[in-house]
Write a sequence for this structure.
């Protein structure tokens, strides 16, 4: 009994290294295979929604989808087995995603599949964000993340300002334009304001009265101008984190006079001439 | 009589703390309730303009609106009562907004309500900008405001340049395209130019002659390129205010005279000449 | 005779001060009147092209336009008289603009007015760019101009790159999409590419084949991404000119040890401690 | 025989200088002629696809195209002859482009020309990118290239993030909107998401349900906001390369060991310790 448990432990260890490790050959191979299967599964979900394609290859898509579902089920079970504290994985963000994305196919055995169930499988895609934690990209993505986090406060205020402005401008446009130009209600007018402020400009709704077009022009110029605000915030933050990095690399103080700010390649203190 | 006045003063004091204070529990609760009621009132205004919704729940919306109007009337009266110099509030920006946003419902008792009266109530939303003065956000929003104020001059020149360019390009497009492509008058052509320059691009009016399309292409590239100008201005201003803040943090004060702001490599105080 | 000439000289002097001066009361008043008349004349040109308005007020517009034309004719003559070397003005950029913008009305006496002649009068608007040379705005507009001039080379290369890319992508889309989606010729496809790359997106032409939509998606992401390039160039240039200005303000070298970079308010050299 | 070979070598030398040189008069003239012929050939390809123009001038276009094809054939042969190691050119990027762009006309003798063959000739345009290596532009374009290369990693992560987000948002919109609003399949929904995220906004597909419009609004604000990310990255990189250049210019070399790059306030060489 003891022996069997130790054997199982060894097996669990092995699987753990393959599934969670990124340093061994098998670990990397597993990551690569997983990546391909995820992409394949998402492509299948997409193709199923293309009527003309689904009509021709319906059965092939279903078979492929079942193979993939079994693969993910197996992976899910192995992930749980290979951990000492499986609950940590099961109730983690990715654990829940994995479960939710795998279940729909089994449901479809019992219920007529709705389109929502089909699409839920596309959530698997979220797992691809994990790649950004891979050592190769992590330094870059951490840099990105830090700059965005640092400018979070200002960007939230900016979005808050934009939303309130959109509601006010939308209300005004509803009064000015009225239903003739497509501004049938305030929510629709707010939708139009956001479409215009962000310079997307679908053209499904557009003002037709001279006054409405004048206000619209002002909104466009405003939208065109205030894009400078988030951009400026993030730019300054990036430049700032750059500078911080440069500064952090330059401390390196002199033992004699205490002057710091020496470059890495400096051999003598630039202030007192002592060897560093 | 004296006693009654002092009692009233105490009452006024209490209300003042609740309405204007942000440090007491009741003050914060009042702010929160106010925020919710404002949002609710704006949502009601929006829903009233959605025909299908209004048809079903017209009486419920009216009742809710009356409850909210009475709440705001009470708040308005209490604000006036709680101040020693009520005129300062009544003629302040927010005082006038509060009054204008509350009156429409009372007017609707005597006159058949027009859509303008309905929408005026959405002005209450302007009060939400007050939140940006809240201590939690104020440092961020002051930073934003300063950078925008510092670049105000350049941005005004930029908008002036864009407006004149729009009129000239609009006039040229009116001659080149004519009514066939929708360019029925110069004001409409100017509207099209702004729609294009700001990269909004509704598509309700678009050039159809080869020459018109060539000019339009040039306008688009121009619009795509000159967005760099406001962005560059604001970015530089943000970076600048960042640098100023960093400088202010490099205190490094002099022990003799207390002047701070010495650079790291400084050996003598630039103010009194003592060795640092 | 001599006396008459000297009298004329004094008159010329007076007019010169009013027309070209910006420091006297009359000079400023003249500038302001001129600004208003230019704006009025441009508004009239605009309104003449609005059919519904022109039908009602045609004669009033013509009368106003003649008053303005006589005003500008007088101004043109006075400008020439008030200068010692009138040719310098007549053949200057603004001199030619003034003449071209004034002539159309006189032509319309002899020929049936065409729309081109009408619109040529809008060229008067170019004179409004002169305002940017006004002392109040000049420091800001010089700053803008310098930063744009400094980034001119890079922006030209960027536009060159964008144009060639547009032609190549346009040619590819012509082959891929064909006339069904509106891509009837390569020039039209290039027009579409520019509309898409600059994120304007009219929607008058849009791809309908899956391959075309995939390429379009790539073009959009490219256009969305490379807007960073001109913005980055101009931002860096603005930040740079900022830094230069800051540096120029800080030279101020020490007489004893030669160290520079002292702030304006520094009283002692931060390096050797001598009084500055 | 020997003499003939040496004569051929001299001829080859001469051609080589003309074709590949950029310093002699003939070399520059050749570059200019080549530039004009390439532009002319591309304009002809364009005009051939404009039905109305091609109908009128079909034979003239064909004749011009044959003249240009013979010119490019001759150029191709001379380029090969003038090199000692012709294979280096033949299998280089531009060598293959030159060949592919010249062949279609010869094919059209034997086969009925398809539109693909016509357009392949537009590939000649790629040769225009060579101009950016010209000394006059190279310093600027190298600067651009370096800043873009330095931000490559972050921009790839950004595009990766955008693509996955597009797929997820597209799937959600497919479920929410359905075929009524034009969201007929997930790939089409993804196409719509990219059109919206990049603020292009054709309007060929646009949401019609309130929920869909709400999600669309969120996507627009997201797209409007995250454009700050690539812009911020590139801006910071440009500012950084600016700073590097400024540093490189602050030579201030050491008299003893010749090391440069000392800061202005340095008193001793950081490399050999001698007083500066």
């Amino acid at each position: 009994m003891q022996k069997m448990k130790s054997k199982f432990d060894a097996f669990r260890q092995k699987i753990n290294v393959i599934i969670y490790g990124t340093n061994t050959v098998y670990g990397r191979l597993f990551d690569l295979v997983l990546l391909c299967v995820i992409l394949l599964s998402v492509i299948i979900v997409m193709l199923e929604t293309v009527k003309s394609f689904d009509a021709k290859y319906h059965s092939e898509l279903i078979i492929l989808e079942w193979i993939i579902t079994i693969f993910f089920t197996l992976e899910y079970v192995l992930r749980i087995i290979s951990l000492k504290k499986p609950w940590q994985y099961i109730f983690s963000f990715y654990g829940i995603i994995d479960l939710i994305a795998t279940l729909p196919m089994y449901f479809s055995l019992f219920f007529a599949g709705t389109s929502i169930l089909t699409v839920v499988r596309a959530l698997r895609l979220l797992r691809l964000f994990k790649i950004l934690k891979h050592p190769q990209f992590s330094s870059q993505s951490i840099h990105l993340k830090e700059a965005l986090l640092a400018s979070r406060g200002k960007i939230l205020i900016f979005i808050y300002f934009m939303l309130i402005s959109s509601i006010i401008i939308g209300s005004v446009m509803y009064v000015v334009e009225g239903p003739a130009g497509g501004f049938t209600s305030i929510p629709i007018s707010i939708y139009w304001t956001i479409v215009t402020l962000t310079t997307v400009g679908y053209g499904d709704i557009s003002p037709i009265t001279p006054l409405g077009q004048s206000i619209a022009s002002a909104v466009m110029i405003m939208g065109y101008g205030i894009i400078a605000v988030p951009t400026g915030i993030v730019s300054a933050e990036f430049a700032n984190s750059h500078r911080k990095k440069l500064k952090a690399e330059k401390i390196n103080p002199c033992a004699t006079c205490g002057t710091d700010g020496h470059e890495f390649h400096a051999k003598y203190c630039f202030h007192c001439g002592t060897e560093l």
Notes: Chain B has a mean pLDDT of 81. Residues 136-264 of chain B form a domain with the Helix Hairpins fold (CATH 1.10.287.70). The CA atoms of residues 150 and 261 of chain B lie 23 Å apart.
